[in-house]
Each structure stands twice: as structure tokens, then as C-alpha cells.
Write a structure and sequence with these properties.
Strand content: 5-15%
Number of strands: 5
Mean pLDDT: 77
Low-confidence stretches: 128-132
Structural class: mainly alpha
């Protein structure tokens, strides 16, 4: 049996609608993931100018990153399906109760005004008959509410899955098991108030001509600790590259192994120098023995 052009158009239209909804859901998941990930590093995702297509790729990691992630996704959507059914069942009970009560009330109004000819009785009868006509649209409203309930639960599940995965990945990357590269940034000192001198690592750079607004303690905590130091396994100091975007380089010092659950890393944003700079990336810390500060 061959399909008619109208049937083919209908199938194509539904397929296009499904793709559109899927794309919107993936973008939503990617945006929530990136928002929660960079929020952990105290950065606003809207200021990073990330490419839109990257938000469509990230959800693959959210839903299918590993076996545990796949199981977690399956469990979450299974629970969502149960929640959807329970919500729709509850809405049906409430709507049926409201409709039956309304019909009973309208019947009483019509029967009570059946033999009355006053203006008020006629208006009440007209209102009751109009109400009966409006009750016919209950099925349409119920269908609309059902779609809203389904979409809402799906978005809730996607939101929490993306948020949990974003925070989990950020916490991993901020610690000792980070997937982010270890970095060595070498840049001219004219516009750089921190960092060690390559020819004299014990000398602090001059701060003449610089000004500060805000918490000076943050600067003092950084000054003198700009290099890596893994001599103390309990409190290693490792600098990693978070992001390069929009002319800025974002670095952070990895959290120690004994970091508290609510501890967040401090992020250092460095504007790219017009005189050039050198960035060396490595998956692991160098084993070269250097003098410690």
C-alpha cells in the first residue's frame, strides 16, 4: 500500500517537529551544564562568548558520558514517566470533579428557571446554556494541560541532570583528578603584576605604578605562590588552564586533596598581551626538580 502525498507530508512534518524539540532540549541541557560548570569557577557563561553549536555537543556527555551516567539518565527519565502519569491522573480527577460539579450546578439553574419568565431567570438560563457549551472545550484544555505537564517534567529532569553533571565535572576538574591541562604561562612583565621572574624566581616583580580596588588579601595569597609545587603531597600547588576566550586566559590553582566540599577555587583572569606570550600545556605536572619558593 503506497502512501499518499498528504501522508508523507504529515510524517515529514512530525519528524521535523520532533527534531526541533530535540534540538531545543539539547541546547537547553548544554546551556544548563555550561552555566553550572562555569558558575562553580565563579564565571558567568553569558560573558564567555561560547559558540552556540558547542551547547548541542555537551549533552552527549551529560546523558551518555559513561555507564553510570547512562544508568542515571535512564533512572531519572523512568521516575519522570511515573511522575507524569501520576500528575496527569491527579489532574484528570480534579478536572472530572470540577466538570461534574459544574454540570450539576448548571442543571439546577436550568431546571429552576425553566418556567420563569423574568429577565433575571432568562439571563441565568442563558448563562447556564452558555456554560454547557463551554464545557465542550474541556477536552481541548485537558490535552493542552497534558502537553504542558509532559514538557515541564522533561525540562525538570534535563535541568537537574545537566546541573548535577556540570557541578560534578567542575569539582573533578578543580581537584587532583582534573582533565584540564597543567599550564606554564610566560609573558612580558610590563603589564603583569604577578608571576615569578624566569632569571630569579625568588624576586617579586615590582608593583610600582599599579593600583588595587577590593580585597588585597586575595592578591597577597597569590603573590609568591605563582609556580607549581608538588613537594608536599597533602597540599600540592598546581596551576591549570580553565579557558581561553575573548582575549582572556583563565587560570586557577587546583584544590588540594583535603579540600572541603563547599570550597571553590580562585580564578585568575589574564588579558592576552599585545607583545605576545607563551603557553605550555601538559596533562601532568613536570617532574623537573626546581627551587621552591
Amino acid at each position: 500500500m503506497t502512501q499518499t502525498p498528504n501522508q508523507e507530508s504529515n510524517i515529514l512534518g512530525k519528524f521535523t517537529s520532533v527534531l526541533g524539540l530535540l534540538g531545543a532540549a539539547l541546547f537547553f541541557a548544554g546551556w544548563i551544564y555550561r552555566w553550572s560548570y562555569f558558575y562553580f569557577f565563579q564565571l558567568e557563561v553569558n560573558t564567555l562568548d561560547l559558540p552556540a553549536q558547542s551547547f548541542l555537543i555537551v549533552p552527549l556527555q551529560i546523558f551518555f558520558g559513561d555507564i553510570w551516567t547512562i544508568c542515571k539518565t535512564a533512572i531519572a527519565f523512568f521516575i519522570a514517566a511515573i511522575a507524569i502519569q501520576a500528575t496527569l491522573w491527579l489532574i484528570k480527577i480534579i478536572s472530572d470533579t470540577v466538570v461534574s460539579t459544574s454540570q450539576l450546578l448548571l442543571n439546577r439553574i436550568i431546571s429552576g428557571t425553566q418556567h420563569k419568565r423574568s429577565w433575571t431567570a432568562k439571563q441565568l438560563k442563558s448563562l447556564a446554556e452558555f456554560g454547557f457549551g463551554q464545557l465542550r472545550s474541556v477536552d481541548f484544555l485537558r490535552s493542552l494541560v497534558n502537553e504542558i505537564v509532559i514538557v515541564s517534567w522533561v525540562l525538570i529532569v534535563i535541568f537537574w541532570l545537566a546541573r548535577w553533571q556540570g557541578i560534578a565535572d567542575a569539582r573533578r576538574d578543580a581537584g587532583q583528578n582534573s582533565t584540564l591541562p597543567v599550564i606554564a604561562l610566560i609573558t612580558p612583565e610590563e603589564k603583569f603584576a604577578v608571576g615569578r621572574k624566569l632569571d630569579d624566581v625568588f624576586a617579586d616583580p615590582s608593583l610600582k605604578g599599579y593600583r588595587i580596588i577590593g580585597d588585597r588579601g586575595l592578591f597577597e595569597d597569590l603573590r609568591g605562590r605563582e609556580d607549581n609545587d608538588i613537594s608536599n603531597p597533602k597540599e600540592p600547588r598546581v596551576w591549570r588552564l580553565l579557558l581561553e576566550r575573548g582575549g582572556w586566559i583563565y587560570l586557577f590553582r587546583a584544590l588540594p586533596p583535603n579540600a572541603k566540599v563547599d570550597e571553590l577555587p580562585s580564578v585568575l583572569a589574564i588579558q592576552e598581551s599585545d607583545k605576545g606570550h607563551i603557553i605550555i600545556r601538559s596533562p601532568e605536572v613536570s617532574k623537573t626538580n626546581l627551587p621552591n619558593l
